Amino acid sequence: MVGYCPICGKPVYFGEKKRSLGRDYHPLCLKCQQCQRQLTPGQHAEHDEKPYCTNCYMKTFGTVTGD
Description:
Blueprint: E1 3-4, E2 11-12, E3 18-20, E4 23-25, E5 45-47, E6 50-52, H1 54-61
Antiparallel strand pairs: 1-2, 3-4, 5-6
């Protein structure tokens, strides 16, 4: 079964996917929505289903959840 990237909306095939927090991403799509830094699967926070690095999440939303 092919999943769809929550960032770009395009299909994510098995050989290219980065699975993080229950979603499949393209490797280049899994980046912080604020600073654009590439993220490691499972090592980031989310807000409104968008990934953020821990630093940007703390600055913007105050506390870390979803790690």
